[in-house]
Write a structure and sequence with these properties.
It contains 4 helices and no strands. It is mostly helical. Helix 1 packs antiparallel against helix 2.
Amino acid sequence: AATRYDTRKQMVLQEANAIGTVYLRTDFLPEPQRAEARDALVRYAALRAQGVRTLLQPASLAETAALQDQLWGIAAKARATKARRTR
């Protein structure tokens, strides 16, 4: 049981660090993508903090996937905008 606890604790810590890193990297995005990404990350972190039982419900899984898709979309839009500016 102790090994499972330690593994779970490590996974939660890794995810928290990843979310924090992504939040800091939003500084590189132009507005309005920066604000949009930060809002999505705050909602994502709040969802993830609800616990495993909540996260495994179909509605939570769908919301998690939608937020991840939204974040990828923001990144793609920012990259396309940057590519147009450098031409």
